[in-house]
Amino acid sequence: MSHNNHFPTTNNVSGSPSGRRIGVYICYCGGNISDYVDVEKVREAIASTEGVVVAKTTMFACSDAAQQEIIEDIQEYQLDGLVVASCSPKLHLFTFRGAAERAGLNPYQYVQVNLREQDSWAHTDDPQGATEKAIKLVAAGIAKAKLTRPLKPYRLETVKRTLIIGAGIAGLRAALALADLGIEVIIVEKESQAGGWVNKFASLYPHKKNGQQLISSLLYELYQRENITLYTGAQVVEKKGCVGDFEIKIKTSQETVTHNVGAIIVATGFENYQPHQGEFGYGQTSAVITLPEFKTLVESSREKGTLEFNGRPIQSLAYIYCVGSRQPAAEENAHTYCSRFCCNAAVHTALLVTEINSSIHQFHLYRDIRTYGKFETLYEDACRQGSVFIRFAENEPPQVIPENGQLKIKVKDLLTAGEELELATDLIVLVTGMVPRENSELVNLLKLPIGKDGFFNEIHPKLRPVETVIDGVFIAGTAQGPKNSAESTASSLAAAAKAAALLIKGYVELEPLIAFVDVERCQWCGLCAEACPYEAITKGSLGEREIAEINRALCKGCGGCVPVCPQDALHLEGYTDEQVQAMIEALATESS
Amino acid sequence: MAKVKPEFIDRVKKLGAFDISACYSCGNCTAICPLTNENYSFPRKLIRYSLLGIEEKITAAPDLWLCYYCGECSDSCPREADPGGLMMALRRWAIRQYSLGKIADLFYGRISSWVTWVVLTILATLGIIYFRNPHPETTKAVPLSFIGLDFLHNAGLVMGLFIAFFALVHIFIMVKSLTKNPTTPRRSPQKLLVGFIQVLINEVLLQKRFRDCEESERYLPHLALFWGFAGLFLATILVFGVDFFGFPEFLRPVAKVTGIIFGLVLIYGAGYFILLRLRRSNSYSQYSHPSDWLFLIWMFLAGLTGFILDIFKWLNLPWPTYIAFAVHLVIVFNLLVTAPFTKFAHALYRPLALWLAGEAQTSPQEEAS
How is domain B8-100 classified at the architecture level of CATH? Predict the structure, then answer.
């Protein structure tokens, strides 16, 4: 949308020295920019720059109408370069690249100038200075645009096969989903048996099936399919290649096999938090156990009909929540996150205990109860069936005192006006959370980023929840963070869908803004290969000569290799020396 | 440091409040209670003490007796945990707890209560058969020719001493428990005396706090039940006074008229509550413990048999009069001799708690204004 008050300028110079025809659009951003930058003055200052054919201001460059106008201008004036001076490229780079493409202009001949985050918002106290800076930034953008050339994304054929690491409920479910889409699956499981944690779980909510039944049904399905290979007692020991075509080495007890896969799903799961010696009496007396240990006890007692511990029937027990979760950040290696599944698991276990013997008194010592969603009914049932909930403050956790074979807990109950309570029970169950697995070999192998919490990190928690910064590598289940089995399966199906979307298309398109070698100058010293964090540079040859070779699929265009080359033989597409120099010149030139 | 006793709530649940475990501590009950104030907040606090089994906090709190069970809390409970029902169950439990040697247990067990009542009835009946005059006046109805005045006098004296003894012991036990509580205000003897008079007038004779409950329909019947009984008691004293202590003779017809009026008032009060409990249409009448029924039924029958006795006497039917007299005496015996152990005891505990809590001086509504 061109602003009526601000008449657009078009140069009728056809035979400019550079021979380029650049269109420049300066955005008001509805005041975000124009409140501090005199946008019209910027346009006037750059309108007569050599090579600029169209220079306009616009209220919102990203609006449909403005984009339409840009497209029309590109076609009418036969532009071969486009500059939009607006917001951060993080926001709208792809918007205007798309507009360029729709107009028939190569999208890589588009340059975005960031006038908002890098100028108007940063200099709200100095409109005049901001305007001068804007003129230079736009001039630099024009200088860069004049040196752009048409580029094509790199197209890579993909291998229609997926590697899944981990055969827990997430890995198995993803494998079935992929196999049904006609994609071959290789599953690698470290343990000698598939099934993971869920295989050991007792009766599950709400269908009362136990974990083993769930896993058996998945494995039964798995064996029905011919395009799934399951390696147990195996580990991935080597990974080469890139998205669409990884080369994977798998080591089993007998052999080492190699497979080519197009995508990798990491579903390596979690570890149970292990309380340290003396944490709530753990290790000091056998009557303090963790929730997973207690669940095993409950499961075996269900058939017997009585709940016994060390040969004695249990009459009362206490659960202590948030053990190993929501720890204060000040602690060393603190697990500051909420483990999410444990409230539900503990309350559900309490109901199973009531089923065995309703006269057992159960006390729940908690900080906050988070039986979210439909699990709320579990909490209500537990209350109604006699579970008593006692709330302690974060800074005043319960104290467990083992005393002549009987356990005593001292706790201040916030629900009883901070009353100090003394509680004697036969058993204490520590409701432990999930912690990340020790997986450093795999982490090094896949170069996957780890979050602050120690779990694998996604790109975007909401919009790209199963993708990682490594193209073609996805995360699923509790490897990403605490989840219950339903949530794990959901995330694993999402990862399967993303992997399938990648592989069924048959090819991937990669950004062409990567490094390239000036073969005349290169004398292969290897410095660039050392500098490359992605192992994208290897020694190649040109006839007799040894030169650097860049794997287009692996190169991310970070530019790390460019400055280390003593021969100045490496360049980055989109950021060539000429372009950067031209930009510096434009920035350094005093505006008239 | 309060010791948690998990089995406590199991015991209370036998006396009512069957759903109290559903409580999730939202505090709606306390927010809506018209009688909760800064000093005494209930029922939520008492729910917590009950679920955790902190007995001493419950017996040491006058709070139980400050509640008149209007049922607002139970009606507004999002979990339908019936906090009012718990307060009632706790009062039943407290009556047991304050009784000497926990004799009151006899009246709160499912079977023991019925057995006790039957045994007492048989004992009273046997006593009357034994002490009756086998040759009463048969030409006209003279009740005192059937059961002698001397016997009545002696039996009344023994019973009076029995009741007084237990009442005093129970008062002692309760005061001891309540004064253990640091939150019970300590006041000067002067203030205690003023408080005593205030409680006597406002809470015993007028029952003002009951009227402060949002639901005040029960206020008048309850007052009637109290005054009916108190009036009949007064009438009996007057007759005894004329017979033994030389009270002027004109008091005899006064006592007669008083007896008729208060008898009617008692029948109205007791009848109202019996019907209320039969209909079960309000939260406070949803659940009736055997002790509730027996208390009301004895009260009602005491009034009713007194009337029937008078009617038979007026019709001058000797034997029906004597039988009605005997039945009346058995019922009154049952009612009075068990008073310190049954629901009747609340007539003692409630004013006492109000007095010690110092809550009678100002009603919540006066405080608010």
Answer: Orthogonal Bundle (1.10)
